[in-house]
Amino acid sequence: MTKIVFACIHNAGRSQMAAAFFNQLADPSRAVASSAGTQPAAHVHPEVVTVMRELGIGLDSAVPRRLTGELARDAQWLVTMGCGEECPVVPGVKREDWSLPDPQGQGLEAVRAIRDQVRAHVEAFARRERLAAPATIVEAGRQDIPEILAFLAANGLPAAGLAEYVTDLLVAREGGHLVGTAALEVYGREALLRSVAVAGTLRGTGLGQRLTRAALALARRRDVARLFLLTETAAAFFPRFGFADIERSLVPESIRQTVEFASACPASARVMVTELS
Fold it and tell me: What CATH number does the domain containing 193 carry?
């Protein structure tokens, strides 16, 4: 078990957020985080509690505690944020310092920005040290569509027609955070695979392959015989799953009339198909 201590001055803001984000993201069988401060405050800053609650993380009952040499010695990592020379140097404990602003006395908008910086640092740290739990792929519901649309827009993928015509949605989540999507439009025994996207920080980790395999399995459960897709940039990715190019004139009318086929993707996009039965 890898133990990480996140430390700042008052243990009322940055370090509390960092430990909460890490424990949400990490594989609990491999790593756990705690937090402490060199001059612990009486309570966590109210603004910090508020902005973390916005993400579904409760710090209402968190109590700041003092950073001691004994506490640090029990860890493999000591990650500091602003405590400088006051933070103990412990032989054998790896040390890293993050230059992040103190949320004390800041307004909510500023604290939200600090929160997002803390989360980005924690995510990068957990992935670099290979302590993050694998992203979980689950079927999504209609209530997830606004979040999915925002994710697709951020990743440069067309979203036209998704809310109206998609029959099946898959999302990948890491620590509760949306990091990947895939979707199916099913028309009888033919379907369109669309919206396969992975967050930039996770590209090259195999998540795109996992999402595609999950979508293929879902299509088979829906008794789909032929699965089509359009792509401008990933034509080299899909053949490993059995996809091959097909002439547009050979694509069935049900697929050619989809919004993605008819208007969302340019005429230069490659059309590919795989046989599922």
Answer: 3.40.630.30
